[in-house]
């Protein structure tokens, strides 16, 4: 067996193991976040969440500058020297320090935008996350590049757990919105400490003669697209907070968080695995296209099923998770779930752009779509908070096909197959949501658990039925169930002898953990989880709400 075939086989094995293990690791983080949502929603008010969302919607833009696209540049690059890693570390740290000082200086401006003096001190406290996350950036990127998913999972899970404890403790002591600030600071601090211990390298001083132009060029283009994406993704919070107040924003915030929670849990591991693997396959068209189509199908299958169930049983889900006092978020939640599906459909576009080094094309794409999204959301505010939710959703729906057309023009990615994947899932699970909803119409409104069980069972029955009568969808299910074997066959096809060569398991270009029993979770960046800034640029625009 050739050396290339061995590396190909090992990369496939590492990718499939990373994806499967990562999803398992996400379960821990999801449980912690669900616990935080359930507990804190009963200890805090909508206004508390609204105040945090007001601050993060504005200062969160600093997270984009803090990263400067350099984490993605490091992950996407074919090689990164020790000297380049040192320089990248100091660049991110320096930017984080400057942003902390700038946020403190402008804290009064943030408070004046909303007319609430409480936001000044809140802005100053949360600005510390810029420095903490700036220091963490390249440690996290290094683990991602090396496919060391177990360590990332450990960092994110422990940090989330400590943040949860800190938030609950502050809430029980009566600190109100400060509990959410404490949660975010604790997550950033613990994540930084653990990354320092687990990464296995400590940066030296800057190296002035080391070439950095490639990284800075990639980062600058990515920064531009991320700024536009951030503005489009957070204008709804600014509009709602300034026009309708903290309480209205608090309800919208919780609806968005409920939508983003499963989406982030599913997207984070898939993106963390997809980007480094696709970057290595960028010059192998057939394998690249097979991997991205496969990855998108798995992600959409999981997202579509989850969102169909949540949308159909939204009232029961909200009452169980947040309590009856939050039922006002139900219609907002259902509308935003539609946006979540199309956002998940667009993630593969993002994977193509970054893994193939198309940062400039990504910037042009953002310039063509994000301003229109901002205008649409501002116009939607004329119809209240619900109008903002509908406008946000409509803009996401419209952007999806535009993104596919864009990558078809600038790359050889399988845009048509990606489009058909999305349409197939939309049809199957859109009707499935209707079946689940109809199955519980006759049940008492207060029989929450029964409604959830019946709704879930009917959705599962619908999926089985469609799999029996639609061969293409049946192939999707079989592929999902045989993920590891799929990668093994794909790699083995590169060399008929590969399957018989035990030495194929070694891939020096892709170091792995001795114990791959877990995987990466979503970024533990507090401002990433509290804003839709692409702070950890290894994943697309993330949820902005505190968990």
Automatic annotation (TrEMBL):
<feature type="region of interest" description="Disordered">
    <location>
        <begin position="493"/>
        <end position="547"/>
    </location>
</feature>
<feature type="transmembrane region" description="Helical">
    <location>
        <begin position="148"/>
        <end position="179"/>
    </location>
</feature>
<keyword id="KW-0812">Transmembrane</keyword>
<keyword id="KW-1003">Cell membrane</keyword>
<dbReference type="InterPro" id="IPR050833">
    <property type="entry name" value="Poly_Biosynth_Transport"/>
</dbReference>
<feature type="compositionally biased region" description="Low complexity">
    <location>
        <begin position="493"/>
        <end position="526"/>
    </location>
</feature>
<feature type="transmembrane region" description="Helical">
    <location>
        <begin position="365"/>
        <end position="383"/>
    </location>
</feature>
<dbReference type="Pfam" id="PF13440">
    <property type="entry name" value="Polysacc_synt_3"/>
</dbReference>
<feature type="transmembrane region" description="Helical">
    <location>
        <begin position="89"/>
        <end position="113"/>
    </location>
</feature>
<feature type="transmembrane region" description="Helical">
    <location>
        <begin position="332"/>
        <end position="353"/>
    </location>
</feature>
<keyword id="KW-0472">Membrane</keyword>
<feature type="transmembrane region" description="Helical">
    <location>
        <begin position="448"/>
        <end position="470"/>
    </location>
</feature>
<protein>
    <submittedName>
        <fullName>Lipopolysaccharide biosynthesis protein</fullName>
    </submittedName>
</protein>
<keyword id="KW-1133">Transmembrane helix</keyword>
<feature type="transmembrane region" description="Helical">
    <location>
        <begin position="119"/>
        <end position="136"/>
    </location>
</feature>
<feature type="transmembrane region" description="Helical">
    <location>
        <begin position="389"/>
        <end position="407"/>
    </location>
</feature>
<comment type="similarity">
    <text>Belongs to the polysaccharide synthase family.</text>
</comment>
<feature type="transmembrane region" description="Helical">
    <location>
        <begin position="185"/>
        <end position="206"/>
    </location>
</feature>
<feature type="transmembrane region" description="Helical">
    <location>
        <begin position="288"/>
        <end position="312"/>
    </location>
</feature>
<feature type="transmembrane region" description="Helical">
    <location>
        <begin position="419"/>
        <end position="442"/>
    </location>
</feature>
């Amino acid at each position: 067996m050739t050396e290339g075939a061995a590396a190909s086989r090992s990369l496939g094995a590492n990718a499939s193991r990373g994806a499967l293990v990562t999803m398992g690791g996400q379960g821990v983080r999801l449980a912690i976040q669900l616990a935080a949502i359930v507990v804190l929603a009963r200890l805090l008010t909508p206004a508390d969440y609204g105040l945090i969302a007001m601050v993060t919607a504005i200062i969160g833009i600093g997270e984009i500058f803090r990263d400067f696209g350099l984490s993605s540049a490091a992950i996407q690059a074919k090689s990164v020297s020790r000297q380049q890693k040192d320089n990248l570390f100091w660049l991110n740290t320096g930017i984080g320090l400057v942003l902390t000082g700038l946020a403190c200086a402008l804290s009064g401006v943030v408070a004046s935008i909303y007319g609430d003096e409480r936001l000044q001190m809140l802005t100053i406290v949360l600005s510390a996350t810029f420095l903490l996350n700036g220091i963490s950036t390249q440690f996290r990127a290094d683990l991602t590049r090396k496919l060391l998913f177990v360590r990332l999972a450990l960092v994110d899970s422990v940090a989330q757990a400590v943040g949860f404890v800190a938030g609950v403790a502050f809430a029980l002591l009566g600190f109100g919105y400060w509990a959410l600030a404490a949660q975010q600071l604790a997550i950033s601090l613990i994540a930084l400490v653990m990354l320092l211990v687990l990464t296995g390298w400590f940066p030296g001083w800057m190296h002035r003669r080391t070439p950095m132009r490639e990284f800075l060029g990639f980062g600058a283009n990515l920064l531009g697209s991320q700024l536009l994406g951030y503005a489009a993704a957070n204008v709804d919070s600014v509009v709602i907070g300034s026009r309708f107040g903290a309480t209205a924003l608090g309800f919208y915030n919780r609806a968005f968080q409920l939508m983003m929670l499963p989406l982030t849990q599913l997207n984070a591991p898939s993106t963390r695995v997809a980007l480094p693997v696709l970057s290595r396959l960028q010059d192998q068209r057939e394998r690249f296209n097979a991997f991205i189509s496969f990855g998108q199908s798995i992600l959409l299958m999981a997202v579509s099923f989850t969102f169909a169930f949540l949308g159909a049983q939204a009232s029961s889900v909200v009452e169980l998770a947040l309590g009856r006092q939050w039922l006002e978020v139900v219609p907002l939640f259902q509308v935003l779930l539609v946006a979540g599906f199309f956002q998940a459909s667009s993630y593969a576009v993002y994977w193509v752009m970054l893994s193939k080094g198309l940062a400039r094309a990504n910037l042009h794409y953002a310039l063509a779509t994000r301003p229109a999204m901002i205008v649409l959301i501002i116009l939607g505010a004329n119809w209240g908070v619900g109008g903002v939710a509908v406008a946000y959703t409509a803009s996401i729906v419209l952007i999806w096909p535009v993104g596919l057309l864009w990558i078809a023009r600038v790359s050889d990615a399988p845009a048509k197959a990606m489009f058909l994947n999305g349409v197939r899932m939309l049809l199957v699970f859109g009707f499935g949501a209707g079946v689940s909803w109809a199955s519980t119409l006759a049940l008492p409104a207060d029989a929450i658990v029964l409604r959830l069980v019946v709704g879930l069972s009917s959705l599962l029955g619908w999926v089985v039925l469609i799999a029996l009568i639609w061969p293409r969808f049946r192939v999707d299910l079989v592929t999902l169930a045989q993920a590891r074997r799929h990668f093994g066959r794909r790699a083995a096809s590169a060399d008929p002898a590969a399957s018989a060569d035990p030495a194929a398991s070694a891939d020096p270009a892709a170091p792995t953990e001795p114990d791959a029993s877990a995987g990466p979770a979503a970024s533990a960046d507090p401002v990433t989880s509290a804003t839709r800034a692409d702070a950890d640029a290894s994943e697309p625009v993330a949820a902005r709400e505190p968990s």
